[in-house]
Amino acid sequence: MYHEEKLPDAVVYPINKMEVKDIVHYASNRKIPLVPFGVGSSLEGQIIPQKAGISIDFSRMNKIVDICPEDFIAVVQPGVTREQLNTQLKQYGLFFPVDPGVDATIAGMAANNASGTNSIKYGVMKDQVLALEVLLPDGRFIKTGSKAMKTASGYHLKDLFIGSEGTLGLFTEITLKLHGIPEHHTVARCSFDSIDMAGEAATQLLSAGLQIGKLELVDESTITAVNKYLKLNIPQAHSLFIECSGSQKEVIEQIAVIEEIIKDTGGYAFQFEEDSLGKSTLWKARHEAGLAIAAAYPGYQLMSTDVAVPISKLTDAITNARRLVEQSKMLASIFGHVGDGNFHVVIAFNKDEAESLQKALQLNEDIVHYAIEVGGTCTGEHGIGTGKRQYLQEEHGEAYEIMKQIKYLFDPNNLLNPNILFIEGE
């Protein structure tokens, strides 16, 4: 990605929470910055040590502490990955639904409030976390939340830590809500002549009140790249990828309604898959879109930006993004989780040309400004990191100052992930 690389002074690998506490104590006494690290899949520079210091790699704290199938709960250490957890959950007929497209750690997903393809049906990371054990910069462990599915008890500190990008505390244990694996699911794909038609179809599907499990938009340039990368033969057109899950009867009824809506909105080449190979092939095409785009632009660097807008503004926002791309004469692909109004623009630029980088940054900024203007957000799931810091105040207004006050209340010496979210000295 386009973020400037920086190295820490040291990397440490704790194996339990008391070792984490020792590390925090050592760093706090010497005013050494601390940066938590999962698998490094963040896209906005969250794990780049802006002021060097110590990177805490949680990969060795990867134990599943407890699974309570009767309560639909799992308790995990921060270094457990989502695929590791789901492998263990299969024997109970359960799964953890948040899927950001990579095998991220649970703590990293919580720190960035990850979402992904399943968020339209199951919600995002904050909807799956029941409780957190957090180590504060002053060495105190606190527990937020409980194993109950809901609470009306006090301030919801748990939700304050989710999405804080490692700036308020370090997660040492996470309690998660689990879900039953659906009885049946079917995957469908359809094509459109324009990206605005695909966006309008997505809006119509959402308005119909269907229990859609996944709803993904992939533009023509991405389909072209995916076909070449994975040696597939998907029709080269703007496309929607859809999944329905539930009982077999429910899924059959939903697919019939979806096909009718797709035809009414100008869609064609409607194809659905029910066998495992067909379903996995279609979702592989969507999940590996980023790798396919990288392969399609050899010698270029990629800037992956995302925004989210109200559903009623989704078609306009996607159409505007495509217009901005064409005006800039940049190479870019558009895809995303349109089921919750979130889409991504991946911009290819020449890293050896300063003008090319500036044009990419300007395109990113124009897309973000439009999203904020229509009531959306500068980032739907990539977080702020260093890449979106300049838009945080624009989006939140006076609340931005409150966020800064909260940061320094928890971390008065600014040791946890400094210069992430906020620019020091502002």
Would you kindly provide a written description of the structure presented here, covering whatever features stand out?
The protein is α+β, with helices and mostly antiparallel strands and 426 residues long. The chain folds into three domains: 1-181 and 388-426, 2-Layer Sandwich (Uridine Diphospho-n-acetylenolpyruvylglucosamine Reductase, domain 3); 184-290, Alpha-Beta Plaits (2-Layer Sandwich), CATH 3.30.70.2190; 296-385, 2-Layer Sandwich (Alpha-Beta Plaits), CATH 3.30.70. It has 14 helices and 17 strands. It has helices at 17-30, 82-89, 106-111, 119-122, 157-161, 195-207, 220-230, 248-264, 276-287, 289-296, 314-328, 354-373, 389-396, 399-410; strands spanning 10-12, 34-37, 54-57, 64-68, 73-76, 94-95, 129-135, 141-145, 170-177, 179-180, 184-192, 212-218, 238-246, 268-273, 301-308, 331-336, 342-349. The strands form four sheets. Strands 14-11-13-12-16-17-15 form a seven-stranded antiparallel sheet, with helices on both faces. The chain has a five-stranded antiparallel sheet with strand order 4-5-9-7-8. Strand 7 and strand 8 (141-145) form a beta hairpin. The model has no long low-confidence stretch (mean pLDDT 94).
Lay out the secondary structure:
Layout: E1 10-12, H1 17-30, E2 34-37, E3 54-57, E4 64-68, E5 73-76, H2 82-89, E6 94-95, H3 106-111, H4 119-122, E7 129-135, E8 141-145, H5 157-161, E9 170-177, E10 179-180, E11 184-192, H6 195-207, E12 212-218, H7 220-230, E13 238-246, H8 248-264, E14 268-273, H9 276-287, H10 289-296, E15 301-308, H11 314-328, E16 331-336, E17 342-349, H12 354-373, H13 389-396, H14 399-410
Parallel strand pairs: 1-3, 2-3
Antiparallel strand pairs: 4-5, 5-9, 6-10, 7-8, 7-9, 11-13, 11-14, 12-13, 12-16, 15-17, 16-17
Helix pairs in contact: 6-11, 7-10, 11-12
